[in-house]
Write a structure and sequence with these properties.
Number of helices: 20
Radius of gyration: 30 Å
Structural class: alpha+beta
Helix content: 40-55%
Bound molecules: zinc ion
Strand content: 15-25%
Shape: elongated
Number of strands: 9
Length: 514
């Protein structure tokens, strides 16, 4: 290292003396050289970790002993670029298993990326607009080149791990009222809100990701009208998954327990009219105050007003404001009575009647306001936007289920300010895991065929996926096959065949038009 540093200083000095340089040029040049120097330093320190004299024998997992073979080189991509690490290789004659003790000690796997680089990849993969962009940003920041696929892999790996962490074990499917270590008695109400948001998936088309948010509120003066206090959500934490309401309920419940739901004086569940939301509320948070989002409730009134009075009439707004005033004062029964009179005026009024009938116990807004409770579920909607829409719904994006879910979950932990915790959950990546993952990816690719998308997102070999029942897989394959039938281009392998299909389609269009 000393030698290299001396050479470096000498080279840089003569470079400076050759011709005048700007600060920007000096900076760029030095950063590049420092990166190379850093990579040698990391490699050198790793070499120091290896025993100078490898012992001839080591215990093998099978119970026999593995014998020293030779030194083998491993390539690892780190934050400072690619480095080579030489380490001893042992082979067990009894079971044929090879091992590199240094790999386990340094916690890396040959041919892969370092944990620090993987962290950065997952962070960028979840926050940049695409995996391609993430790889570009990384290169600008660290001068390290990785493929977009590496970014995807690192992001999905972390996402799958976090999903797994939040999934309660199957045996504990009953509420377990043990206060979590993190929960303390909180005088402020704990809000729990949830919503669904669609993402475009290969296998199932537009599918709903469920998003849940737990938060507290703090009142502060309105900027424009300081005499009015408004409630702002704070210390929000999020869960997100692509799953049925039943398992999502457990996931959200687990997060609520972490946030102190078992020791909170008051719990509020806020949501729109979706049935699954209120089923989860009944099942997991039976003591909670249930509130239907004020804006959804008002929307139904405005739609009814348009149906009754027409879009452009003056009476429309007057009527809607009068009903909203009643609603604001908690006179839901009067609003409902009014709506019932106009029932004959079409579907919008009918929809409002059934919405108000079903949710009237969740619309006691006067009482909620007097208790200082928030009545808008804006937090759930903004969570959907931040976790899912902002990253997964860029133009033309098409995802694999596991990829979409993983990215949303990584974003959820990041926005919950639990990044350090998420990173700490990562275990040691071993060679065995990676091989298995590569095999599974190949197998899945073979069965599904080659696809072209803006974001190619391949399935991950997670425990969840391995447990995927055969019938689900068969269903997915059947749906894919059906899709191919509809769109001939997917199956069109040759140019003549494409032409044939195109002429057939033109023929069909002509016949239909005729
Ligand atoms: Zn062995």
């Amino acid at each position: 290292m000393t030698e290299r540093m001396t050479t470096l200083t000498r080279t840089l000095s003569s470079w400076m003396l050759e011709q005048p340089q700007t600060l920007a040029e000096i900076e760029q040049h030095v950063v590049r050289l420092l990166k190379e120097l850093g990579a040698s330093l990391v490699a050198g320190l790793c070499a120091l970790a290896a025993a100078p004299q490898p012992s001839p024998l080591l215990p093998c997992a099978c119970g026999h002993v593995a014998a020293y073979q030779r030194e083998r080189k491993a390539q690892v991509t780190t934050l400072l670029g690619s480095i080579s690490i030489w380490r001893s290789y042992y082979l067990c004659a009894a079971c044929g298993r090879g091992q590199h003790p240094l790999d386990a000690q340094l916690q890396f796997c040959a041919g892969s990326r370092s944990a620090a680089l993987d962290e950065l990849l997952a962070l960028l993969g979840a926050t940049q607009d695409s995996f391609v962009q993430a790889a570009q940003v990384l290169e600008r920041l660290t001068l390290v080149h990785v493929s977009a696929n590496s970014v995807r892999e690192a992001t999905e790996h972390l996402g799958a791990l976090l999903l797994e962490h939040q999934t309660p074990p199957h045996s504990e499917r009953e509420p377990n009222p043990q206060p979590h270590a993190l929960s303390t008695t909180r005088p402020r109400p704990l809000y729990i809100t949830m919503d669904g948001v669609l993402a475009h998936l290969h296998e199932r088309g537009w599918s709903e990701l469920k998003v849940g948010c737990c938060y507290h509120t703090r009142s502060r003066a309105n900027r424009k009208r300081p005499e009015r206090l408004e409630l702002r959500a704070e210390s929000a934490s999020y869960v997100c998954a692509l799953e049925e309401a039943q398992s999502f309920g457990w996931r959200l419940w687990q997060e609520a327990v972490r946030r102190g739901v078992l020791t909170s004086d008051e719990v509020v569940v806020l949501g729109d009219g979706a049935h699954w939301i209120w089923n989860i509320a009944e099942r997991h948070f039976p003591r909670a105050t249930q509130i239907v989002d004020w804006y959804h409730a008002s929307e139904y009134l405005w739609n009814a007003a348009s149906a009754i009075w027409g879009e452009v009439s003056l009476e429309r707004a007057d009527w809607a404001h009068a009903q909203l005033a009643l609603l604001w004062e908690g006179k839901v029964k009067e609003v409902l009575a009014e709506l019932l009179q106009w029932r004959a005026r079409g579907a919008a009024v009918e929809a409002a009647v059934s919405y108000y009938t079903e949710h009237q116990t969740r619309m006691d807004y006067a009482s909620y306001r007097s208790r200082g409770l928030q009545i808008g579920s804006g937090s759930a909607e903004s969570a959907c936007k931040q976790l899912v829409s902002a990253r997964l719904k860029q133009a033309g994006m098409l995802w694999d289920a596991s990829g979409a879910e993983a990215v949303a979950v990584v974003r959820a932990w990041l926005l919950s300010e639990r990044w350090q915790e998420a990173i700490a959950l990562r275990g040691v990546r071993t060679r065995g895991y990676r091989r298995k993952q590569a095999d599974q990816n190949q197998a899945v690719q073979k069965s599904v065929g080659k696809r072209q998308t803006s974001e190619r997102v391949e399935p991950l070999a997670t425990a969840r996926q391995q447990a995927m029942p055969a019938e689900v897989l068969a269903q997915v394959q059947a749906e894919l096959a059906e899709h191919r039938g509809k769109n001939g281009w997917d199956k069109a392998w040759s140019i003549p065949r494409q032409r044939e299909l195109a002429s057939q389609r033109a023929e069909q269009t002509r016949t239909t038009a005729a």
